[in-house]
Design brief:
Length: about 450
């Protein structure tokens, strides 16, 4: 695909976000503000970058078709009677993209926008991500098209258990190991592990991102945000930054965004803008990242945080800063808003936050982009550590986990940078590295 539609992709135009958790919530809060999102799909975005890298590697079309398509795609029906007394039918998906390098690995997303197309894209991204990070996994992703803020806890549990019952046949600690993603967390992983255990006996290595008392790993919850910060530290000098003078903005203040913000703040950097699905805030004198995280953990939404000015979500992008961290959904930096960004570096916490057209604009503006496929690998890297600990029924302390994470993230960054030729985007160099490693494994196994 390309923005020019060369693979049948939709032309990149923007639309209003119809799916930011939608509706008046139970607290009587107003509807979320409309946020412009690219209408080019996540799948088109991933295919575009895959094609660009495969082209440079000279991979023939038949081999590209093997590498770019999924090994297995499962869709299941999840009928659940909700508190309104009616049966609602949700769709659940698990896509296993490529397993040449090891068991399939990837998160489970709960969001009304979840579709086969999106899960397929995210699964493909996981294949390249695990390969770039050099951990022995393939790529997968899953999801259910439900809106968690509109559901009761017991309803989320019922959906989760039903989903696990229906996909367990394709999972297993040496086959496919899910983890959390948007709107899923350690509690959801605990329910998944418990449900799997009813059929197979206690199997902690079936999911990662579990609660600490259930053999979760120390450091997993903060891992994706921490990984972003490791890469910021690696790359800061390239664009003349140092932590005490760095001002940064975070789009999406959930797991990834809030942990990245807290760890950046610990280094001495200053958070000057943040957002969530309900709106955005700014304060040029600094926003306390810890206090904002506590506010969100206690059920608050970002625009209601005191000691900051409420702004429109679109204005968040225009805040003058050094580092912008997208940590919400895909397609949020697109052809119609990329020009507004006023930063030196973007570290992509979200998956596919930047469309190909936006990437070109950012390149013209001289913004250094550390791409999702490398930047947000911290979560899956510590998931790998959790899996290793589970297989041994052994536990590492948090310092050990964080140190090992730093080693892997720095190695991935340096290996990618070392093969980046003048003018080549870091993203394409990263995809090239990932594709080469998957192809090498597939050839050794005799798949291709
Ligand atoms: P999360 O559910 O904890 O947080 C998502 C955040 O995005 C929330 O604050 C939500 O309010 C906000 N959001 C949703 N729609 C928005 C909008 N229109 N505008 C602004 N904010 C909006 O999810 P997460 O786990 O932090 O994941 C965030 C992103 O990071 C996703 O793209 C996910 O795929 C990616 N990611 C997550 C992990 C992980 O370990 N959790 C790992 C790699 C990548």
């Amino acid at each position: 695909m390309a923005d020019d539609g060369s693979s049948g992709a939709a032309t990149e135009t923007t639309g209003q976000d119809a799916a930011s958790h939608g509706g008046d919530d139970q607290d009587g809060r107003p509807d979320p503000p409309k946020v412009s999102r690219a209408e080019v799909s996540n799948y088109d975005i991933v295919c575009h970058y895959f094609d660009a890298a495969a082209e440079r590697l000279g991979i023939p079309d038949d081999l590209r078709a093997v590498l770019n398509s999924s090994y297995r795609e499962v869709r299941v029906q999840i009928p659940v009677r909700l508190s309104d007394g009616k049966i609602h039918v949700f769709s659940g998906y698990r896509v296993q993209h490529n397993g040449a390098r090891g068991p399939y690995k990837g998160g489970i997303r709960y969001h009304p926008e979840v579709s086969l197309d999106e899960v397929r894209a995210l699964a493909s991204l996981m294949t390249w991500k695990t390969a770039i990070a050099g951990i022995p996994f393939g790529g997968a992703k899953g999801g259910v098209d439900c809106a968690v803020p509109d559901l009761e806890r017991s309803e989320v549990e019922e959906i989760t258990r039903s989903f696990m019952d229906k996909i367990e046949k394709v999972l297993g600690p040496t086959r496919d190991i899910p983890a959390p993603d948007v709107s899923t967390n350690a509690q959801v992983m605990a329910w998944m592990m418990d449900e799997y255990g009813k059929l197979h006996g206690h199997t902690p290595a079936i999911v990662t991102g579990k609660p600490i008392p259930l053999e979760g790993s120390f450091g997993r919850e903060a891992a994706t945000g921490r990984g972003l910060v490791y890469l910021y530290r690696e790359a800061a000098s390239t664009v003349g930054l140092s932590p005490p003078s760095t001002r940064f903005v975070v789009q999406g203040y959930g797991n990834v965004g809030s942990w990245a913000a807290r760890i950046m703040q610990q280094l001495g950097a200053t958070l000057v803008g943040a957002s969530d699905h309900m709106g955005a805030i700014r304060n040029d004198s600094g926003i306390d990242a810890e206090a904002l995280a506590r506010h969100v953990e206690e059920g608050g939404v970002v625009p209601e945080f005191e000691a900051a000015e409420r702004i429109s979500p679109d204005d968040l992008l225009a805040i003058e800063c050094d580092v912008f961290i997208p940590a919400a959904l895909g397609g949020m930096i697109h052809a119609d808003n990329a020009d507004q960004l006023s930063c030196k570096m973007i570290i992509e916490g979200a998956n596919s936050p930047t469309t190909p057209k936006a990437d070109e604009i950012l390149d013209d503006k001289g913004i250094y982009v550390i791409p999702d496929v490398m930047a947000n690998a911290g979560g899956v890297v510590v998931s790998y550590f959790e899996w290793v600990q589970n297989l041994q029924h052994f536990r590492w302390d948090e310092r050990e986990v964080n140190d090992k994470l730093g080693t892997v993230m720095r190695r991935a960054y340096r290996e990618t940078v070392s093969r980046k030729e003048e003018g080549l985007p870091l993203r394409v160099a990263a995809y090239q590295l990932g594709i080469e490693r998957v192809l090498e494994a597939a050839r050794m196994r005799g798949y291709v």
